[in-house]
Amino acid sequence: MCLGIPGRITAITDTGRLMAMAEVSGVRREVSVACIASADLQALIGQWALIHVGFAMALIDEDEAQKTLDALRDLGEAQETLEQMAQSEKALAEGTLA
Amino acid sequence: MKFASEFRDPTAARALLAAIAAMADRLGVTREKPVHIMEICGGHTHSIFRYGLDKLIHEGVEFIHGPGCPVCVLPMARVDECVEIAERPGVIFTTFGDAMRVPGHRKSLLQAKSDGADIRMVYSPLDALELARRNPGREVVFFGLGFETTTPSTALSIQQASREGLMNFSVFCNHITVPEPIKALLDDPDMVLDGFIGPGHVSMVIGTHPYDFIARDYGKPLVVAGFEPTDLLQSVLMVLTQIAEGRATVENQYARVVPEHGNPVSLAAIADVYERRPSFEWRGLGEIDASGLRIRPAYAAFDAEEKFGIGYATGHRAVPEIEGCACGAVMTGKMKPTQCPQFGKGCTPEMPLGALMVSSEGACAAYWQYAGARVAAE
User: Fold this and answer.
1) Tell me, what's the ipTM?
2) Structural domains in chain A?
3) Residue A97's pLDDT band (boundaries 50, 70, 90)?
4) Which residue in B131, B266, B360 is closest to A92 by CB distance?
5) Residue B349: other Cβ atoms inside 10 A
6) Shortest CB distance from B130 goes to which of A55, A87, A92?
7) What distance in Å separates the CA atoms of residue B190 and residue B186, rounded to the nearest whole number?
8) Rounded to two decimals, what is the model's pTM?
9) B265: domain range?
């Protein structure tokens, strides 16, 4: 939970709440772009960001994104984060049934 | 050692190790009289063990593993309070998965879940917000834990809940800060520290200036570092170079991600939602002045401490740590994990006694995972 994971912003999903869709190692996840947003939200599309517990915290270039992903995979952190995202889906589904 | 396969850039790693060795020789450090460099962040500790940097590096350079794993410094009393809240009727207790197995006095959150409490592991506080929207009749509590990297996420979530009037959402705030425990360690006369590797992603939020006092008031160098092994080696070299040149400044090896002044949106959200507690309890380190955050009165409606009357502020009950657990001594660098009598015996990742064995960023779990065979052979 302490390390961010690189993801690519693919779409803006909610301009009011500053939410966007990001793709993290093939997994799609809605994230907040409040911390990296500028006036032109659409300009974020296609950019890489370091995503930390669902919040894009810093814009990074593609080379940095790849190197960071490699390092996180070595540490097992990338897999762990993807598992946590899957867990979250499960937790939310439980909520729908409740 | 399969050097080339371990490092993506073995040439750079070799060159850095050689430069470190030359600098260490220039400083005259040896295995018997080493230079002590503390890596503050648990992610760095994990990386050092994963790549065996502590063994590859000149024997006169010793890594001291700092208190930068938020799960590991979580006192048992906080876990007990989480369980107490989670067991209240109508509560959905949400947490990062990392906290699930931390031992409490009565039980861990994982045990509480198997006993029937509605505890859900989530990836983000945004998921807790969504649970609150979907379950208006339930009280959704998010366990706000972690350093300055996670603090903005809960601050922004509380602001969002406030805007939406999501009154069944609250945060059990146990956020802590990095610079204050470093000051406490530097004030400890038993600690011998010559320099620091500063955390990468924490600094992405707070910038590099909160560490200025370390160089200015204590005369110790600090270099903010990235997570790749060559980042860490380069940062060690930068620390050694400062020592050799008689300098002490804060340098930024990770400038490609860490801005000097941090992330302004995050800092504004933190300042809006949180204020400092006079002091906060750390496992192994005790009470540290101004090292914890609490929710400001303006956001009291989203404060689980206020809602449930449970927490650090409410009739603080110090709960003694488990007997035989030496996490405190390990965390302050006074003891190596393997010197703990419980290491690998009463305390393993499957059945952790202390928190340092729980998280992959804890020094004990890292030793166990990567250095078990090596340690056994020594």
Assistant:
1) 0.93
2) 5-97 (2.30.30.140)
3) very low
4) B131
5) 16
6) A92
7) 9
8) 0.92
9) 76-178+261-308
